[in-house]
Amino acid sequence: MTLAHDVAGSGTTVILLHSTVCDRRMWDPQVPALVDAGYRVVRCDLRGFGETPMPDRPYDNAQDVTDLMDLLGVQQAALVAASGGGQVALEIAARWPQRVTALVLLAAAWAGHEPSADLRAFGEREDALIEAGDIAGATELNVHTWLGPHADEATREKTRQMQRHAFDVQLAAVEEVEPINGEADLAAITAPSLLISGRHDLADFRWIAAQLSDQLADARHLELAWAGHLPSLERPDALNPVLIDFLHEAHTAR
């Protein structure tokens, strides 16, 4: 199955991988800026998000993305990924390091991370709301938890719509199917990497960014004082220049 996707612009390819709170629409504020900066931008919906349906068998998100690259004739690309999409990007960069030219991870999840009490409490509360049939309540919990103080009401509503749609698609599945998550061998990742965290996010994601920046071969960590978990939505005016400057720097150095 081909992931739902769209392509804009021309030049070096940048692939955008969404948070599992959202879908590919979360990158609406980044696409025009990246195209104007001279990039070909590919964004896709992972399985069970946006316009990509749930699968009926175990699936491999990293393989899905590289299959899409093959379909589009993309041999190499920079990966820009948020939260759960960041975990997918790490796996791609570890399994196919020659295909990744640069890596930008925004509040990335990491398979090797042991959740804090706060993150476990969030998961337990979300599960309880879903079990009780309160999908609206579970949606609001996500909007409240994952957006920082600079997100305006339009951004909160857009995030609300994306999260509610994901719940509707995933809960309508006949049976629950889990992704196949491979362990990312961080030592195999060669791409220059920027790890971005937000001071208003849960501590887990600040810790992950710091750990990854220490363990990856060519990486640095940037903490944004204004940001929560989804800085690309919260303040694209502040995030986009950081993103574009890093991509230009990484590709100029090659």
From TrEMBL:
This is Pimeloyl-ACP methyl ester carboxylesterase. Gene3D superfamilies: alpha/beta hydrolase. It holds the Pfam family Abhydrolase_6. InterPro entries: AB_hydrolase_1, AB_hydrolase_fold, AB_hydrolase_sf, Epox_hydrolase-like. The keyword Lyase does not apply. Residues 14-240 form the AB hydrolase-1 domain. Keywords: Hydrolase. One of its GO terms (molecular function) is hydrolase activity. One of its GO terms (cellular component) is membrane. The keyword Hydrolase applies. Transmembrane segments: none annotated.
